[in-house]
Amino acid sequence: MILYTLRRLLAVIPVVFLITLILFLLIHLAPGDPITLLMPEDATPEMIEEVRIRWGLDQPIWVQYFNYLSLVVTGDLGMSFKYGDPVVDVIFSRLPATAELAIIAMIIATIIAIPLGMWAGAHPNTAVDYAGGLFGFLGISMPSFWLGIMLILLLSGTLNLLPSSGRDNFGITDAPITGFNVLDGVLRLNGGQVLDALKYLAMPALALGVNMAGMLMRVTRSSIIDVMHEDYIRTARAKGAPERRVLWFHGLKNALIPILTIVGLELGALLSGSVIIETIFAWPGIGSLLISSINARDYPLVIGTILVYTLIFVVINFVIDLLYPFLDPRVRLG
Amino acid sequence: MSKMTGVTYSSFGKQLQLFKQPKIFVGTLIIAVLLVGGLFAPLIAPFDPNKQNLDLAMLAPQWLSGPHVLGTDPLGRDVLSRLIYGARVSLIIGIAVALLSGFIGVTLGSVSGYFSGRTDLIIQKIVEVMWAFPPLLFAIAVIAFLGQSLVVLIAALVLQRWIPYCRVARAQALSLRARDFVEAARALGATDGRILVHHIVPNLIPTSLVIGTFAMAAAIISEASLSFLGLGVPRSIPTWGSMLSDARAHISTSWWLPVFPGLFILVTVLGINLLGDGLRDHLDPKLSRAGNH
Q1: A96-284: which CATH architecture?
Q2: Where are the domains of chain A?
Q3: Do A29 and B146 touch (CB under 8 A)?
Q4: Which chain B residue has its CA at the smallest distance from A152's CA?
Q5: Looking at residue B4, what is its pLDDT?
Q6: Residue A87 burial by CB count (10 A; 0-12/13-18/19+): exposed, middle or buried?
Q7: With an 8 Å Cβ cutoff, is B203 touching chain A?
Q8: Which A positions 275-314 lie with beta carbon below 8 A of chain B?
Q9: Which residue does chain A place closest to B244, by CA atoms?
Q10: What is the pTM of this model?
Q11: What is the mean pLDDT of residues B82-101?
């Protein structure tokens, strides 16, 4: 297990370096002098000089890359022009909002998709299966940002049930404990805060989770159909295990590997989706931060946000790779 | 001669059989209607999509009782006409991205699988790195730095979309190169290039078509998302994504502005996904587990 972890880790490190290289090259491919990208428009000559030295812009390009890399490795992503703070601080102050939204979206998608997929897969070619199939198709085809707008139109507009934007903290002015509003409310034993946080989360999380729910439902269905034909399922039935246990224990356990693979892939789409969903719902996470920093031409913040997003995705896939051996002992040999 | 006609006829008949599958039939129908609408937009659209008329601003849908079937926007432009013209951008980008990434992905994938060794290693490293970026974010980064244009947009999407083709083409080429007919061609003195072009690639086409439908659907959603964020094609061209973006300010007053562009995106993507799913069932039910996003 330790060897497997180390080997996966060794495979990830060059990928991370190449990601930084690609982002670095993008800055240099941009039309015009990179210095104009990396400076606010009203930069003083001293500031220009500082950036020139910091990025080593008078040196050969590979020296520049290693300068940039050594700064990134120490967690120094430069200063945001717009906020006047280090890029890392700006991003970390908004990261919990994005993480909370993504986690709730994933939970909603899983709660809807797995039972639906299991149900459809256990009764292939019945009305239940066709209804599930329609849900799956609509789920993968739905533009999540349109669903978000439709939810606002219906639930905030017509029915006036839920707030359409922001992420209220229930008038609580104490410093956040974890930064996750729901969790903070639980830790403070403040039911009102939990409820309030969930109200703000409901619509963006549902919109963000819909594509994942569709994909997850389809994969759960097809892998449960495959699994239910296996010999060990027949054995479980033969020894008299009730059908419910056969499906939900023996069946689901063995269907989990393709499901996990799709969760990993779909989390990338979920992270991308958070950019657009956060923009619609004015959710104060790093997705809306990315778009506002592009509009403000705050390029150090743009690069920093994209780098952080990509690293999160790399870490998620690394963790998922580590989970495989627990689900399927055969992986350990491979 | 008669024999040849017979063969053509029967294979044509076989192709027709495909359309008896409801998924393929419905999917093809939706795409065909959109293609015709997009191609003949100037003839079909009742109004010039960019013609403003402030006297007729914000009209609710008149359905069949007036000229503005689906209403007008705050500048008095006809919503239905803009939707029909919007199909052009979506389809051009969807088809261009699917074809270009298919060409790159199948070429690199078959070379990677056929030759293995160092070529394979390098190509697979590129695949791994490009796949490490969350899908839309890479396109956002490219557009943020290189500026907005149709070419940059298509390039930004292609840079990631070739990966699924490449992965599948590589796996298939790996198994194909050990097959008897490839061995036979090699024994007859065929060069590697000839084997790739004449024996490997033709066998990769059916699977690539399936991947192509999903690539097209993904490209259309990505284009709409980017246009919605103001990072898509220039503003003067009507697109479904930018129409949705414009509609955001009027959600509470004019429901038709956000509803119709989204419905068009949903139905288009649904049609393409149905076609892709139907083709996949037809080709090989086992394929349904190949990851795509």
Answers
A1: Orthogonal Bundle (1.10)
A2: 96-284
A3: yes
A4: B251
A5: 42
A6: buried
A7: no
A8: 275-276, 279-280, 290-291, 294-295, 299, 302-303, 306, 309-310, 313-314
A9: A146
A10: 0.91
A11: 95
